[in-house]
Each structure stands twice: as C-alpha cells, then as structure tokens.
C-alpha cells in the first residue's frame, strides 16, 4: 500500500521519509512488501496505515490551489479506531510527527497488551446489540468477551480472550447470527484487555498539546464531535478499552444534511460499511495516486 504515492509524488515521499525519521521504523518496507504476518501486528500496522493515509491526503492538498482546498474543506472528519488519529491530523489538531509518534506508541503498547493475554476478535453478522451482548454473556464463561465495534447494521465485532472468542464463534448462530468470522488481529482491541496499554499511553498523551480541530472530528466512543481540544486526550484513552460506535457516528453525520463523503487511506472498508448503513450515500475511495489525481482533476 502507498508505493505509487511514494514513487511518483514528492510530497508523498516526504511523508514516508518523515515517518521513518520520527519512528525509526522501516515504514516503506512494511507498507510496500509486508509480509502479511508483520502487518497483522498492530505495532507495525498502525504507523504504516497512518503514513499511507497522510501521504495520500498531503498529495491531494499539493495538487490543489488554496482556493480549491478551501472549496472542498470538510465540515466533518471521522476515522474508525486508528483512523480517528488520521482524522485529527487532517483537522489540524496535531502535526504529522506528533501523529505518527502517537500511533507508533499506541501500536507498541497495544501489541504488548495483546501478547500478555492470548486474545482476539470475532466478527458476527446478522445480530443486533442486544443479541451480541447475550452471546458475550454466554460465551464469556468468566473470561473477557465484549462488544468492541458496532460497524454497521448487522455487523458487530466481539473482542476478548482467545478461548472466549472461539466459543462465541461456535455459539453465534444460536443467538441469531448468520455468520461468525474470527479476525486476523493481534489481540482484543477495544476491551479491558487493553487497560494496561491505556494506562501507559496516558503518560505519552500527557506531554501532547492538541490544537482546536478546524472541522468537526467524530469521537469513536461518543459518536459525536469533540466539543473542544480539551476532550481529545480523554476520549482517545477511552477508545482503547471502549467500543467503536461507527454506525452511530455515520448516522450522526448523515443527520447533518446532504453529504459528499470521501475515504482517504488504503483500501475501501469504510465505503463498504456505508453501503450497509445508508444505501443512498456513496463514498468515494481515495486510496491510490490515480484516485488522488482524479479527484484533483474534478476540483479544477
């Protein structure tokens, strides 16, 4: 991911170089080559994904005049889990070096917490929140198992100890699920298993001063915009151990009036989720240099 931006965009190349200087990680190798088992580690995946997203964003900005940038300035920004950091960066709440250092440290601490307790996540389809919570109660059997992501109607991700996740996958159909899929992730994100990571990450955030965002940034844990920069630290910490309310976040945005949403970053996962949230809303995926240039051309 992102190799085309690094190869053919000076601005994109600069973002990668700055990321490597700030983190000491070989971001290019991770993003361009993997291997997959490395990118399944959250300590490597987080800074790589953040860097690719920022490179796409800054390349787009470089191709537009100041007037064009102003014309497509977003009213709201949002990102799922790690993506919330990208949204805060895009809104000017922090500079790039601060952002990539934060996500690298976040990933490192989350990986440590995941390694300490064998854990994982399982996506269940066809269930509502009440059914998912009943499944967690049944399959947990005294172990950690909780709802971690409310992604879209009919898709909820459970997070917890490895054995509890396996039991949840086995029992899911009895509680109304049409399908259950264990996910290739490092551990039980957005659950109490991440509490040690949150405790240590609080020390990192203590030294960071966030700027007031230039647009409304949706907090995952509240499904509503931050009221001020003063809320950012608290809600980023809460996000580590609390569920991501993505479907509610998108419903909030849709309720604000006509939307023209863009997904900037590798892949098109959020566009797929939006099709399940509101079929009338089409998300434009800006996930390659060609897509960036196409969007810039439309703005001219």
Protein described:
The protein has 300 residues and is an alpha/beta fold. Helix content is 53%, strand content 13%. The protein has helices spanning 3-8, 10-23, 27-33, 36-39, 42-63, 66-71, 83-90, 96-116, 129-140, 162-171, 195-205, 232-241, 246-254, 269-277, 289-299, and strands at 76-77, 119-125, 145-152, 155-161, 179-182, 216-219, 224-225, 262-264, 284-286. The strands form 3 sheets. It has a 4-stranded antiparallel beta sheet. Strands 1-6-7 form a 3-stranded mixed beta sheet, sandwiched between helices. Strand 3 (145-152) and strand 4 form a beta hairpin. The protein is globular and about 55 Å long. The mean pLDDT is 95.
Strand order, biggest sheet?
Answer: 3-4-2-5
The shape is globular
Spatial extent as radius of gyration = 19 Å
- Stretches where pLDDT is under 50 for at least 5 consecutive residues are none
* Overall pLDDT confidence: 95
Biggest β-sheet description: 4 strands, antiparallel
Count of discrete alpha- or pi-helical segments spanning 4 or more residues: 15
Features:
4-stranded antiparallel sheet; 53% helix; alpha/beta; globular; 300 residues
Structure at a glance:
The protein is α/β, with parallel strands linked by helices and 300 residues long. It has 15 helices and nine strands.
